[in-house]
Amino acid sequence: MRSIIALAVATIVGVAAHAQEIDWKKVDTAIGRSAAVSGNVHRYGFPRTDLNVTLDGVAIKPALALGGWTAFKPDHGGVMMMGDLVLLETEIKPVMTAAIENGLEITAVHNHLLRAQPSTFYMHVSGHGDPLKLASALHSTLAASKTPLTAPPAAAATALDLNTADLDRILGVKGKAVGGVYQFGVARGDHITQEGMALDPAGPLGVATGINFQPTGNGKAAITGDFVLVAEEVNPVIRALRTDGIEITALHSHMLNEEPRLFFMHFWANDDAAKLAKGLRAALDKMTNAESVGHGAESK
C-alpha cells in the first residue's frame, strides 16, 4: 500500500513539475491568444464572433452557443489537448482534412442546436504530445475555417436584464456574466478520467454541465447548454426537461474513451427565466452532481 501511495505521489509531483517546465507564453503565441488558467489547465476560447446566427428569432450571442474552445492539460511527456470547434456546414470537410493532416484526432461531429440560421456544427478534437506542436496543429486546423484567429477585443461589461440572484438560488450554484450571457457550470460528483488521467477541473475540460441564459426581454431568457450524464440518468433528465417545456436538441458523445461513459444532452427554450431555471433544477436533481450544488433551492 505504501508503495502504491508513493507511486501516486511521485506521479502527481512529476506532472506538476512538467507543467512548470512548459513555456506557456510560447504556446499562447502559437495559438494566437492568451489562456484562461484553472489549476494546471490552460483553456483557449475561439468564439465565432464573425457569425450572425439566429434561432426562433433570437440573435445568438457567442457566449450562449458559439464559443469554441480548446484546453491543454499536462500529461506524462507532454500535454493532453481536447476541444470543441464551432463550424459552418461548409467548413466541416476542410477543417477535418486539416486536423487529420496535422495529427489531431476527431472524436465527434454533430449539432447542438436545431433550426438555427445558418446551421452550426461542432467538431470535437483531441491530441497528445508536445504542446507547441499541438498548438501549431490547432492553429493550422482552425485556419481552414473562417474562425477569427486573433483574440477578440475585451467585451464591455453590460448589465443583464435578469434576476441573477433568483437564478442562483433556484439552481443552487453561483453563475457568472460572460459576454451578455449568464453562465452556470455544475461539476459531476463522480471521478471522470480519460486514458487514466483525471479530467479535473471539470469545467475547463468540458465535462461539467453547462447552462446559459441570454436575456430576451420582460424577464424572459433563451437557454441552452449541455447536461453531462451517465447512461442511467439520460431518460430521467429528458423527462424532467420535457415536463417543463424545455426542448431536447441533441444527445451524443463528445469523447471516445472516458470513464465512466458520458452522454451530452443539449437543450433549448425561450421563456420566463425563473420558470426555466426551475425546470433545469428539476433535471439537475436527477443527476449525481458535486456537493456544492445547493439542496434548499425552490422546486417546481
Can you walk me through this structure?
- The protein is an alpha+beta fold and 300 residues long.
- The chain has two domains: 2-142, no CATH class; 164-284, no CATH class.
- Helix content is 28%, strand content 33%.
- It contains eight helices and 17 strands.
- It has helices at residues 2-21, 24-31, 62-65, 92-101, 131-142, 164-171, 234-243, 273-284, and strands at residues 36-38, 41-47, 54-55, 58-59, 67-75, 78-88, 105-110, 120-129, 176-178, 181-186, 193-194, 197-198, 209-217, 220-229, 247-252, 258-259, 263-272.
- A six-stranded antiparallel beta sheet has the order 1-2-5-6-8-7.
- Helix 2 (24-31) runs parallel beside helix 5 (131-142).
- The relative contact order is 0.14.
Order of helices and strands: HHEEEEHEEHEEHHEEEEEEHEEEH
Unreliable segments of 5+ consecutive residues: 1-18, 295-300
Number of strands: 17
Percent of residues in beta strands: 25-35%
The largest pleated sheet is described as: 6 strands, antiparallel
End-to-end gap: 49 Å
How many structural domains in the coordinates?
2
Helix content: 25-40%
- Spatial ordering of strands, largest sheet: 1-2-5-6-8-7
Structural class, by secondary structure, is alpha+beta
Helix run count:
8
- Radius of gyration using CA atoms only: 19 Å
- The overall average pLDDT, rounded, is 91
Gross morphology: globular
